[in-house]
Amino acid sequence: MVAAGALLLLPSLAGAQTPPRVADYTFTATLDPVRHTVRADGTIRWTNPSPVAVSELWLHQYLNGFSGPRTYFMRTRSASTWPAHPPHWGRLAIESLRSADGTDLLATATPDPAVPEDDSQLRVALPRAVAPGATIELAVRFTATLPEMVARTGYQGSFHMVAQWFPKVAVLEPDGTWAHFPFHANSEFYSDFGRYDIRIRYPRGYTIGATGPRVEGPALVDGLMEQRHVLEGIHDFAFTAWDHFRRADRRIQRVEVHVLHPPGNERGAARTLDLLSGALPAFERRFGPYPYPVLTVVLPPPGASAAGGMEYPTLISTGSLWWGPRRARDVEYITLHEFGHQYFYGMLASSEHRHPFLDEGFCEYATARVMEDLFGRGGPLLDLPMLGPRLDAWSWEALGSAGIAHPLSLDLGADQFPTWGRYGEHVYSRAAIVLRTMERRLGTRLFTATLRAYVDRARYSHPTPETFYAVVREQLGPPWEAFARTAFGTPWRYNLAVTGASSARDPDGRWRGYAVVDREGPFDLPVNVVFTDVRGSRSVVRIANDRVMTVVPYDGAAALRSVSVDPEVTLPLEQRRLDNARMADGHLAPTLPLIGRVAYWVALALGSVGP
Amino acid sequence: MIRWISTGGRTGVVLGVAVIELGLAWLLGLASTASVAETLSEHPLGFAALHAQGGRLLGELIALNAQAWAPIGVLLAVAVLAWAVVWMLLGGMFPVLGSTSGVRWHRAAAESLRRAPTLLGLAAIAGAGYALAAFAGYVATGWGARTALTRFDVRAITLLGLVGWMLGGALAGLVTVWHDTARAHAMARGKAAMQSSGAAALQMAREPLSTVAAGAGYGLAAWSYLGAAWALSGLLEGKTSTAALVTLMAAQHLAVLGRVHARMKWFVWLGQRVSLAKARAE
Description:
The structure holds 2 protein chains of 2 kinds. Chain A is an alpha+beta fold.
């Protein structure tokens, strides 16, 4: 079936910008699901977007990160994230690369000599310089051998997640330098917008999910099924194939949403579609239109969960337990996150290598924001009363950031974070909680408008932190720009704590005392201090919070019971909230229920081996 | 006529056992929550902080006490292990109390201790039985998963796996019934471990429905109290009013009491059964 009118598809919904066409790819790709290979040939058409003539071209061959145990990817991987080696290695082998005049470009192409034992990038010397705005066309033939599933790529049985399978032109930055880099285990990708016209050929019986709308097929051609996907305004192309996929479809607004799922997980597919029915409009309200006509969600089959949790243009992979309770919203969270990447990666194509917080952190913020929009205050992630206290999305992000013991700047390259764990806690959690802090301080409406201005400005481009800072300066003023620069661009610890609280009765019958508020870290934003007396009366004092220690006087009709600073949580980026409140000297809060609760569980354990 | 317990009565023993179990649990609860409780006692919300700010404070408490969790785990594991050893030795007193008229509980305990080698032997056999049940469950689950994987149906995979674990659970239940019955035989009829094992197996074979069904019934009764407390916690979890906290705590403690009560009744039933068999044999 052909998607109606779907050849080139960027409607005016996306605002004034039209996506640039820097790198166009036209391939015919044949999947051999027995050998786990994709043989392809076609053309790469590249236009020099910079004001500088270039005489070389850099290609990324990310798949070669999985080609052996000594590649840069494998050397930099974290044991806790990716296996030491997949049982079968993968490889991207370019068999032919010629310019339009037939010059063999492969003969002189070399990997980056600065990165030994790694050919995840290829320097291609051009026979003649490409002038600014000029276009070259390369004819290419290659074979991608997929690894057994690793890092969201490869195969598991007859299931195939075909990603990073073709040579991809690196981004030429406006200053004429190539943003090429070896494939690092912390890092994702960076490439230019263009038009993708991909014919996929595959054996009968398989179901295909791919980037972009299907505009031809599937039809039987020379004994193989063939279908064609075309889309522009994107910068990558991935597809999945499995001979057991089931499919659920729903039109949400103007978008055809397909969920490919294993048999038996109809419930997961329905949950995904229900979620997206609310999420797509919610994202559009906050971050602008989703401009593509299609979205495909892949729920990987059993044994292939490593394929889940990844984003490609109009194609995302998630994961779902068919029996998972509705109020354990892991499916929702991961789906929102990967869908959020259609904005913060897809349309705002920042370098995931150089500024990973711009896609992961902003996307994480958007995820929690929409979780709250859809599921209520806090964005409840885990809300199963019979299993204990609830966990909210915002708290999840805050706890990730709070766990940072040795802070780094958020604006480091992915390869500059020493471990995957430290990458995650900074790039995902801390970035998200910084944005949340801005929202809490500025109000949701104003901050959403600011983010929307950033999205509008950066759509179909490669934004950098400077892009965001400029929007913040224009929308919110220099103090907030300074805040953003400090929060994203420097390492920091930040905490407010009530370190002392006391009161005593004066001869006039009034109770007078003080609270001590300590501040660690750079942000001197005013906050409220709330005194509560033993009768339950509250009084609020606003403090400037511009010193490392502020003594706040108390004057009340009754003895001071407790003090809390910033009880409204306007600074969720604090590393510890527990010490934001404190009982006054001589008072203790009840904890008996905690001991009783633990005693009960211990009694159950004793009973299981007892009489 | 068979009297259940000559001194103190059923309520006394049930209460005694439950109080000892809960008392120990409270001691362990106090020890294992000391550092967390200290932090919470300084926070105005106290216990309610665990439910505040969408889990953030709870998460901070967990992280703040990260160093303490391993020692607490060891403490609890040792305590549970010690409790298991105690009841391996005293596990024979309840069938005695249930089957013998006029015996005082401390004499029953002394008799149980005297028969410790037999009880330990039975516990060892039961341990092997539990291991076998777990292994059977594991094998069945693996078989189910492999079978289901060829069908690619995630529901089938989960359910076949569940069937495997249910099989393991059912076997473990049978082992429990057998172990309790063997202890009753050992205490009431003075048999050695192997003879008691055989007698218990024979009884289960001869009266499969009554023995196994009674065991399952009493087991179900014991678990139903806990299930009720769990359901109540679903309603009250997160509610931090004094009334809610007191209600839930009371319900949970009553559930422990109910569980002990059901277990005691099962031993009484077993004791009576074995005594009758003994009388018939004589």
